Amino acid sequence: MRKKSKELRKLFNQPGIIRLVGAHNGLTARLVEEAGFEGVWASSLEISAAHLVPDANILTMTDFLDNAIEMNEAVDLPIVVDMDQGYGSSNNVARAVQKFEWAGIAGVIMEDNLFPKQNSLLEGEGRELASVRDFVGKIIAGKRAQRTKEFMLIARVEALIAGYGQEEAMRRAKAYVGAGADGIMIHSRKSDPSEIIEFVKAWDEDMPLVICPTRYPSFDEEEIKSYPKIRVVIYANHVIRTVVSAVRRSLQEIKNTGGIETISPKLISVDELFELQGTFNMLESQRECLERREEIMQEIECLAER
Hints:
Shape: globular
Low-confidence stretches: none
CATH architecture of the largest domain: Alpha-Beta Barrel
Radius of gyration: 23 Å
CATH superfamily of the largest domain: Phosphoenolpyruvate-binding domains
Number of domains: 2
Helix content: 40-55%
Number of helices: 12
């Protein structure tokens, strides 16, 4: 239960930024690992989209837990779960933390939006946030519920998203640190990183910051490294957006050409897919089991003849 939480804590204590990439199932988590990133973000948006429902608390905690377990079993990387606002009250938060931790998840990030949520990147939607008092209570409940010191609960501040401004964002972030959060995710949907940079420069707590540059992609890793208070960068939803783009292109080409001849050379081979699935390892294991079975049966027959 502690292994991946320890690994995540270790990453936080090493120099350089930690890159979490959003995934929505075991296959996409394996591809994130194969690409050489440091961790997997079990994205609420990606998982919701994969189920073809809005990212608005339609799915349950159990739905997200099942997906997180699938990803966790597929990779050696630490999994950090997008826990929305904790699926309800402080009691729901406590149970969710226990479930995710017991499943071997390294950590969760919980946001101070109200239930039901609206995705932070949804334009034109006014939003209210949970009171600081209520969200502090959720953090306390989550931290009290965890069984090990390694598990991480990071608080996500939505004040800039909601238009509350820097002062409110800072007030909330400091309150969440006081409640025991293991890090602060500061979120923005501006098209440039100025709002984030302003917050980072003013941040004077000894607590790591997490960002998600979906809306301000020009803020690349080289520039991010010049702000050492930022420890984690989340590339939150690019995998599923890639999947949708690629599948649409492939289907259109098949339709336009009336066949698969032109598209087949552009795709991974079936053998590569078998490799990702572990098919060859399964077959090898089957062969070894059969060989061992025959050896044992021969031994039994020899003993019987005596």
